[in-house]
Write a structure and sequence with these properties.
alpha/beta, 11 helices, 42% helix, 16% strand, nine-stranded parallel sheet
């Protein structure tokens, strides 16, 4: 199992993008340029028609990606053609995995260099089989813990988690308002009492100032919505420049 701590210095910079948005060519160019960026870990969002966790900007990007033909098969094909020393993980809804076949999906993800899966709509009570398959393949099944998750539930969820902990910093979908710093600090403390995995905070983290503030209380910051927005407005060189500024 990959130790995510060995892939970042002090605090991790975690970026999110929708695979295939605005098109697969841009996704390929972005991944090929990752080694020249200050991104430590890239979450590749797999476009899905009925996302439960995505806000307007990410949902619209996913819809565009689907319209352009960004299926999981195309994403696997793309990943088999690119190389990067940075860590890639999937954020993928369970229906995509289920339709592909659990065992086949895990095997293929491993083959193309994916190090972990984040599955936002898969509850703990139903993740045992996928967790076992991921363990056998040395692939992390990354748990999500929300600011509203009770402490006993945190312990339960973390009993089947690996890689890092995705701490959800807001109530609701991506791009929403982040919870108060004191509340997030308590959330990170509660997680650390139950797990030695690095804790990254995501949802509601958009700017350089947000990233700096979040890094004071956890092991890394996840930026999604504002990065996806960059893909709508800029060309690849400008996108890299602006992401570098966010994570400085």
């Amino acid at each position: 199992m990959v130790n995510f701590r060995t892939h970042f210095k002090d605090k991790a910079n975690v970026a999110y993008m929708v695979a295939g948005y605005p098109d697969l060519k841009m996704t390929k160019s972005f991944i090929e340029g990752l080694d020249r960026t200050n991104i430590d870990i890239l979450e590749l969002g797999i476009a899905y028609s009925d996302p439960i966790a995505d806000g307007k900007i990410i949902s619209e990007a996913a819809l565009k990606a689907l319209e352009k033909g960004a299926t999981i098969h195309k994403v696997f094909e793309l990943l088999s053609e690119v190389k990067t020393s940075k860590i890639l993980v999937f954020l993928v809804y369970y229906n995509v995995i289920f339709s592909y076949g659990l065992q086949s999906f895990v095997k293929k993800a491993k083959e193309v260099g994916i190090k972990g899966l984040i599955v936002p709509d898969l509850p703990f009570e139903e993740n045992e089989e996928l967790f076992r398959l991921c363990e056998e393949a040395n692939l992390a099944l990354i748990p999500l813990i929300s600011v509203t998750t009770p402490k006993p539930r945190i312990k339960e969820i973390l009993s089947r988690g690996s890689g890092f902990v995705y701490a959800v910093a807001s109530v609701g979908i991506t791009g929403g308002k982040r919870a108060e710093q004191a509340k997030l600090k308590t959330l990170v403390k509660d997680i650390r009492e139950e797990s030695s995995l690095p804790v990254f905070l995501g949802f509601g983290i958009k700017t350089k100032k947000d990233v700096q503030k979040i890094k004071q209380i956890c092991d890394g910051a996840i930026v999604g919505t504002s990065i996806v927005q960059l893909f709508k407005e800029y060309k690849i060189r400008e996108i890299f420049k602006k992401i570098k500024e966010i994570f400085e």
